[in-house]
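Morning!

As promised:
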Amino acid sequence: NAGVTQTPKFRVLKTGQSMTLLCAQDMNHEYMYWYRQDPGMGLRLIHYSVGEGTTAKGEVPDGYNVSRLKKQNFLLGLESAAPSQTSVYFCASSFVLRDRSSYEQYFGPGTRLTVT
Amino acid sequence: AQKVTQAQTEISVVEKEDVTLDCVYETRDTTYYLFWYKQPPSGELVFLIRRNSFDEQNEISGRYSWNFQKSTSSFNFTITASQVVDSAVYFCALSDLTNTGTASKLTFGTGTRLQVTL
């Protein structure tokens, strides 16, 4: 099992450009998440998905869009990149327990994005 | 609103010393989960432990131990006989069950950077 993979690992964008980050998991997890990690701020949830075809906003959703067309993939899009979106982006996935809570989240290796 | 506080930004110890990383949380939920993750210099996030709010038993796993005290809303992590390979950023996180049927979202602390030197 590859677990959670992210593509690309690194990317440099100019302000105003767009891009899509791809997250894939092979563990048949229902829940998937996108976080950003900034120095001194821990990880903050951008968007998440509780299943194929559904998405919801997290703590810092502005400037990002997501899609979950297939259960194993969760895409994060930046329509018009800004320097404030320079960050490390982590994707995660988790099982669903019977009480609909989720088990621990398994994280991908991260994507380091720089917007100039 | 949920909150996780890791007041120690950075800790430096010499190998073989014991070290405790503090985690204090705030939540209005009676049912919740607490986690610790390790982020080594390579950058990936490694799951260490999950504890639910009904289980206050301390846990030991090799050189790692966790002390969960509901009365003080703390979930502290101790590394015994630290090693250089323990050098990493450690995150404490809290997950709620506020919304049945939705994903339990993790609220992370800001992390504690542990540096273990020879």
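The interface with chain A takes residues 4, 9, 33, 35, 37, 43-45, 47, 50, 91, 95, 97, 100-106, 108-111 of chain B (CB under 8 Å).

Hope this helps with the figure draft.
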